[in-house]
Design goal:
Layout: H1 2-18, H2 24-40, H3 46-54, E1 70-75, E2 81-88, E3 96-97, E4 103-109, E5 112-119, E6 131-139, E7 144-147, E8 155-158, E9 165-172, E10 180-184, E11 191-195, H4 197-211
Antiparallel strand pairs: 1-2, 2-9, 3-10, 4-7, 4-9, 5-6, 5-8, 10-11
Length: about 210
């Protein structure tokens, strides 16, 4: 319990300090300094993992998120950032996707595989894109990797061969106003919108209501 509260106290401190920073770049820089320290304090994450295994109240694994591996650890009351937890088994990756905000990600356990893509088309067709892999990085435990919004941040992350990876990401406020992220099929060029499940249900219900 003490360690679990310790990690929440850390997030609360971040929330207090981040309010003093008005620029998105400064906020991102703040977390590039703070997150590596947290990632190295592995004992703070032991109660989190034990609670997940034992079905504890925190963190709550029941709310649906965009990605199956994602668990929300903290939401800043002012909506300036959130902290998210990801668990990857061997060979597991998220889809190629973009972002609505800046982010700083790293791992507590394992080496994260990050594959970055450059968009070659002009984006005129929302349903199709031409992507090219432009870089690949392997991020060891305790190190971080910066994420950018929209086309600058198209990537995928996952686990190439580790027994397990524990990833933590801090993401800033929504800079785009979108309620979705784009996912990309690099082979076919197809682009799809990925919504939070409750947002998609509400959207489809509104559409159906108009037809009734």
């Amino acid at each position: 319990m003490q360690n679990r509260l310790g990690i929440l106290e850390r997030f609360d401190r971040w929330s207090d300090e981040i309010r003093e920073l008005r620029d998105a770049g400064d906020r991102k820089g703040y977390f590039q300094q703070e997150l590596p320290t947290l990632l190295q304090e592995r004992s703070l994450f032991v109660p989190v993992m034990e609670a997940i295994v034992g079905g504890g109240e925190y963190p709550d694994v029941r709310p649906s998120t965009m990605f199956d591996s994602e668990i929300v650890l903290y939401r800043d009351p002012g909506r300036l950032f959130s902290v998210r937890f990801y668990l990857w088994g061997p060979g597991e990756y998220d889809p190629v996707h973009d972002h609505n905000s800046w982010g700083v990600i790293g791992t507590v356990l394992g080496t994260l595989d990050t594959v970055n893509y450059q968009r070659l088309d002009d984006g005129a067709d929302e349903r199709r894109a031409v992507l090219e892999e432009c870089s690949r990085q392997f991020i060891p435990a305790g190190r971080t990797y910066a994420v950018f919004p929209l086309n600058r941040g198209i990537h995928r992350t996952g686990n190439a061969s580790e027994p397990a990876i524990v990833q933590v990401g801090v993401y800033g406020e929504n800079l785009t106003g979108r309620t979705y992220v784009n996912t990309f099929d690099v082979r076919t060029g197809e682009v799809n919108r990925l919504y939070l499940p409750h947002v998609k249900k509400r959207m489809l219900a509104r559409r159906a209501l108009e037809l009734l």
